[in-house]
Amino acid sequence: MGYNVAVLGATGAVGHEIITILEERNFPIENIYALASKRSVGKEVSFGDKVLKVEDVEKFDFSSVDIALFSAGSDVSEKWAPIAGDKGCIVIDNTSYFRMDPDVPLIIPEVNPEALEGYRNKNIIATPNCSTIQMLVPLKPLHDLAIIKRIVVSTYQSVSGAGKSAMDELWDQTRKMFFNESGTTGTNEAVTDRASNFSKRIAFNVIPQIDKFIDDGSTKEEVKIVNETKKILDASIEVSATCVRVPVFIGHAESVNIEFENNVNIDEVREILGDTDGVSLVDNIETETYITPIECVSDFSVFVSRLRVDHTVPSGINMWVVSDNLRKGAALNSVQIAEELINRKYI
Ligand code: A2P
Fold it and tell me: Which of 54, 149, 272, 345 is deepest in the core (most CB within 10 A)?
């Protein structure tokens, strides 16, 4: 006995991971449907030892599925999530479109599973931004311990967060650099011969812009981390974020500075993080052990390294947080939400 599940955006980077993770975690599936635009009709995606033919979302009847996992961009979610929800299908949406809607729960299963019940308002549940997810999984038990007052975070985000064509762009630019082909050698050259995902060259560079700028000089990605932290963890936490794109294919890293209301003991923090579901503490200065993005690829954990006291404030710590943005930052979090719906007998 299983559930009927649709994956919208099945040909994309996150959609591919969702289908892989559903299979890896033995999600109870009766039927699974791979959906994308009509451009992809007839393409095939693997689900374990089966092959799924990609179908056009425009022709799909959402009343035939219990759950739909969406990762096809905000415009697609804006249009199709309400249609699917009205037909009784529960939508788990990976885009930013519904995240700040007060009638839509924004869920990280390890952090605020109790908010899941709000799905009943619209039959839509939102998955937070990848950077918010990996930051809040280790911060939740520390907020319970000593009340977080302020967070200052700088992100080092991989190109896969911008989708498959962004990964292709990093690959193409890097290859052209090595073969000394035109279009990529200038210090500030944007791109080559096709549409660009980034405002500047990403190969051998870092770009302090993710998403569009708003009036105060922040980017929308930075605002997402601020607002989503308040919605998920605590509205009184102040967050200052700087988001940077780096030439890494998969795996986001974050340098996180946390200031607490109450005193914290670094050994206690270490002990708590060592016992937190979803967190792997990999941190040893004697052996110079810490995690980098390439080591987190395909893993389900949020890794914490470089844990240390911030001596410049009465009660503060610094940490380095790394996770596979396509997994815990997106696909895994969505699948865990679906699992939680089953655990709580909502479906
Ligand atoms: P398609 O390949 O048919 O365009 P990524 O984020 O890796 O770029 O992937 C985006 C995913 O969203 C792809 O599966 C893509 O399918 C899908 N998608 C994009 N636009 C639409 C649309 N208008 N309708 C349905 N799926 C879409």
Answer: 54
Task: Compute the distance between CA of residue 36 and CA of residue 250 in angstroms, rounded to an integer.
Answer: 23
- Which residue's alpha carbon is at the smallest distance from atom 9 of ligand 1? 12
Per-residue pLDDT, 190: 45
Å from CA of 38 to ligand 1 middle:
9
d(CA 329, CA 16): 14
pLDDT for 185 beyond 70: no
Is the full-model pTM beyond 0.85? Answer: yes
Q: What is the mean pLDDT of residues 301-306?
A: 98
Place of tokens 């937070």: 128
Contact criterion met (CB below 8 Å) for 163 and 197: yes
* The two structure tokens encoding residue 93: 């949406």
221, 210 Cβ separation under 8 angstroms: yes
Q: Which residues does 112 contact at the CB level (< 8 Å), separation at least 6?
A: 105, 106, 232, 233
Confidence of residue 1 (pLDDT cuts 50, 70, 90): confident
> Quick one: pLDDT at residue 237?
98
Q: Where are the domains of the chain?
A: 3-127+330-343, 132-325
Residues labelled as active-site residues:
130, 252
- For ligand 1, the distance from its centroid to the CA atom of residue 2, given in whole angstroms, is 27
Equal fold, 3-127+330-343 vs 132-325: no
Tens-digit pLDDT profile for residues 318-328: 999 999 999 99
pLDDT band at 75, cuts 50/70/90? very high
3-127+330-343 topology per CATH: Rossmann fold (3.40.50)
Q: 49 Cβ partners below 8 Å, 6+ apart?
A: none
Separation of 71 CA from ligand 1 center, angstroms? 8
What are the pocket residues of ligand 1 if the criterion is a CB atom closer than 6 Å to any ligand atom?
Answer: 9-13, 15, 36-37, 39-40, 57, 72-73, 76, 163-165
Res. 184: pLDDT tops 60: no
CA angle at residue 71 from 70 to 72, to 5 degrees? 105
Give the CATH fold of the 132-325 domain. Answer: Dihydrodipicolinate Reductase; domain 2 (3.30.360)
Is the Cβ–Cβ distance between 282 and 303 less than 8 Å?
Answer: yes
